[in-house]
Fold these 4 entries.
Entry 1:
Amino acid sequence: MYKTLKEIAKFIDGVVVGDDSVVIRGVAGIKEACAGDITFLANPKYFPLIDKTGASAIVTSEDVETKHKPIIRVENPSLAFAKIVASFAPTEVTHPKGIHSSVILGKNLSLGKDVAIAAYTIIEDDVSIGDNTIIYSGCFVGHHTKIGSDTLIYPNVSIRERVSIGNRVIIHSGTVIGSDGFGFVTIKGKHHKIPQTGTVEIGDDVEIGANVTIDRARFDKTVIGSGTKIDNLVQIAHNVVIGENSIIVAQAGISGSTVLGKNVTLAGQVGVVGHITIGDNAVVMAQAGVSKSVPAETTVWGYPAKPVDVAKRVNASVQNLPRLYRAVAELKKKIEELESKLKKK
């Protein structure tokens, strides 16, 4: 398969600067690309590679300049390049069709049109599944659970009882939704389990990565807002509420009853204590430990997390501690020498 730059630009609604007749035969990253490939440039740290890459053309943002090779200017290079990749190498996935004979179906089910359920899956009583939803093999769906339309559930997902999942949701393998929240009361040195009687509610257009755990609420519900995307290996505790269109990156952990606003980003390995609020559009940078509420429109970092400009100054000061220690040691030595001389006088 090959396309000209003119054809590609039309496809992604971009503007060609340079020769639009250049023929593109493949796609690659900016470091790996060679002649005949098209690549993209979105991260400023790769700007020095714009004139060094072997690619025949580059998809860039609207403010990038280069005279060494043709470019296609677009509003969002990452999104545009994703469309190009899909057009050159469309993903061919054969999803299950129909209901396999080994599936165990409960009573009083409501199954929509063209629902597909693969082998060795268990669907318990009073479950509702919407049109065109696909459930791969080895899954478990507990009683009184509702799953919307056009949802895709990959193998070995466990969805406990009374959970609600919206439309166009994607859930990757190994994820557990609706497991008991971690609730115990300690009396005379023994931990007594607190019943977790609530549920989990997941909105539309949510994607949940592999091996994610989302606990049911102690009362009421744990909520994942519509449009939110959750990476692999994330833990979301009981009664957490995550607003719409948030991003939760791998190995993040959110303690119970914490509320995240809309468009919040938690980067990798972030830890959040319970019973706090993180405001709309806040960003928590990687490995931060959030011990108190974060205002909206704020970026925080560090442990404990603090506004990023403060955290950077603190970090810079810490890096200078060895030099400061040596300086103090030298001053101490000089003071001791001066005191010794004064005593002799």
Entry 2:
Amino acid sequence: MPADPAKIKLGDHATIADLERERERMNLNDPLYKRYFYYLNDLSFISVHSDEELKKYKYFTLFSAKSYKLVLKKPYLDKSFKDDRLVSEKIWEAFPNTLILAISSIILAVIIGIPIGVTCAIKKDHFIDRFFSTTSILGMSLPSFFSAILIMWIFAYKLNWLTNLNVIGSLYEVDDLGRGERLSLKNLILPAITLGIRPIAVIVNLTRNSLLESLSSGYVTVAKAKGLSEFNIVVKHALRNSLIPVLTTTSGWFASMLSGAVFVEYIFGWNGIGKLLVDSLENIDIPLAMGLIILIGVCFVFINILVDLMYSILDPRIKID
């Protein structure tokens, strides 16, 4: 990677005068701590800027003093080196695609994983339990890039005559007849399955172990002594407590998916933030890569806070002060 961001943006044919002007505009001649402060100032909703700097923002003035203003604005992530578009615009164009893919994958994982995990716990040490326990271990150890290529090769290439699925494609495709973009939900199937394989395996294994622990606890013994049916004991008592570690793990996987399944999106050509991150690194587009990484961090923090709030709903013993 070249050491000079101004040269990355302007290219190898830029003159020395152009490079100097760009370095001045990007504050590259300032010390590192000042550049860091400028970046945080741009990220903040409430920030201080000179009248000249405010030309690039849409803002609401809170306080004004001489040539500086305290303003309320959207976070500013600079412009892309590749096409000079706002980084925030490029991110919000790709983010809905990743959100749809992540939600589809995690719903698939929960719908499949929890019932299988419950079945394995009820049928402990039976053939069904041993089969799914072994399969879940294989699913957890299967790398995403390998499973993506394998699933694509089988279902989109070899069995295309049966599935009619595309090798690559995103949520919206350009119509061959020139009628603009059209929604193509079939392109969601293979990426969602691929992205859901490892969460399914983790949820199966975690649900089984957590439910077995709950079934061996004292309140389950009391429930059995009262004559409650096995269904009521498992579903209404043991399973609810068992879902807390499952929720924790699921939230972590969802945060990872939401922040961009890089391999899956890139291999299937899915236009989400994962593919956008790969493209930004290939093009040495530093502002776009930084903006995407910040978004990934925000997703993890927000989802973890949301999960902490949900704990008290699943288990009344947990109180949030």
Entry 3:
Amino acid sequence: MPTAKVDQGLQELPFKVENGEKVFNLDAQPVKWNILKNVSVTAWAYNGMVPGPLIRATEGDKVKILVKNDLSEPTTIHWHGIQVPNDMDGIPDMTQKLIQPGETFTYEFVAKPAGTYWYHSHYDSDKQISVGLSGAFIIEPKGGLASKPDIDKVLMLNEWRVIDGQTYAAMPATGMDGNFFTINGKSYPDTETLNVKVGQKVRLRFIGSGQMNHPMHLHGFPFKIVATDGNDVPESAQIMKDTVEVGPGERYDVEFTPDRPGKWTLHCHIPHHTTNEHVEPGGLMMVINVI
């Protein structure tokens, strides 16, 4: 199994324009991925990264996504929350045939509505999603976000189970709990530090892409929940919180503006989820460095 050629997931996926369509390419393939400098997992990944590439489009864009299967078993992709035609929904033996090893399948649809979405395998998903087959899909409103954030960051939350160097799908319902937890494919202290200036507006887009709930807590500042599952929350209904529970499949967009400097922690408030092999600190934790 090849070692990943890149160190960060969610890198924005380039596209070319053909006949008025934005054309993207995704390749499902096995890869060895480091969640920590000294801990690697056997991942199934899109384009050799975990999470898979960030697909970005503008509402109303016609998109074509060519998905090649370089895995040892079939797969499909579901475009979670996006309003696609039924035959593009990615459900095997219901809306499409399985993409067999070595085959390529083309998905075509109009990107709508604007919001935070994600894509993931919908075949043997208990395993395939758990070992890496997911990524983010952001559909921007025409003219951009009304709130005009200075920093706009996607955070995908996942779990892993690594025992004696072997990677298993984290399946808490079967007693196979996760022992490593990642934000954008990395466990703390190897998670990204987000550098922010005092007075900058920050938008965080949480995506629950694993199988567990994660109450994400921000130190230092309350935030407003401005969108849920791709739907804008009316300003009159936006509530201030410092913890939001992100369930499997859910998306929450939150915004805050730091008013003082410091290194502020963002983490899951289930203590086990901030450990690496039961050792704290680790897992679902990152630093918001306000300068």
Entry 4:
Amino acid sequence: MRSVKLTLAYDGTAYAGWQVQQGETTVQEVLERAIEKITGESLRVIASGRTDAGVHALGQVVGFRTETHLGTDVLRRALNAELPPDVAVLEAADAHGSFHPIRDAARKRYRYVIDDGPVRDVFRRRYCWHHPGRLDHAAMARAARALLGEHDFRSFETAGAARKDSIRTVYEIRIRRGRGGDPGVGEPCEFGRSQAGQGRGGPPNLIAIEVEADGFLYNMVRAIVGTLVEVGRGAREEAWVAEVLAARDRRAAGPTAPPQGLFLVRVDYEEIC
């Protein structure tokens, strides 16, 4: 038996999330079906994290054990031939025998994209949260500093996923404003066109919020985004975010941002092979 590590990209719009669910189409289901068709093995794959319905991935990491002797490049090409067009294997690699995508993950990075232009962009609706009012992204960035470091992030956790504790370390929160196509801001939802002045030549209506941590609680990024938007729209002071963190109570924080603006950017490992 060998261990294989896959790096996936997927558009989560059509899926009920990552995890297999009865009566629903999920990313895990279509990947396992493709693996079975190629290798003849009915097996279960493990992802670095379970993305929710509508959430996307630029670099999801998946691991599984297999008897196949296919080379990793052949396996990648074969899987991409079987997978639907909204899921792609970016890389396949052999991993050490005990490799586990969850336990071995050192850091994860998520990006959330907001469009605060005056008119919703119909071509970005699946990849951005449209907030119809200009946000003060600089105030959001200043408020986010309170979340850096090791803290109890219970205020930013939605009930529903059992965790041993809610202590996490946030290494970086980066908030940038830009136009579609600007590096690290609009490329996940950019289509190389301009609508109502919102393309490359229009105003910078996209805000990208990137969070990197040693791990995340259920809906943690979306709760952080919803809380920072309260600051950005002027409903709360910048110091409020620190108060929310100290409260350790989900009711103290802002709303959970909708799923379509969230992208799992990458997962880092200390040792892969």
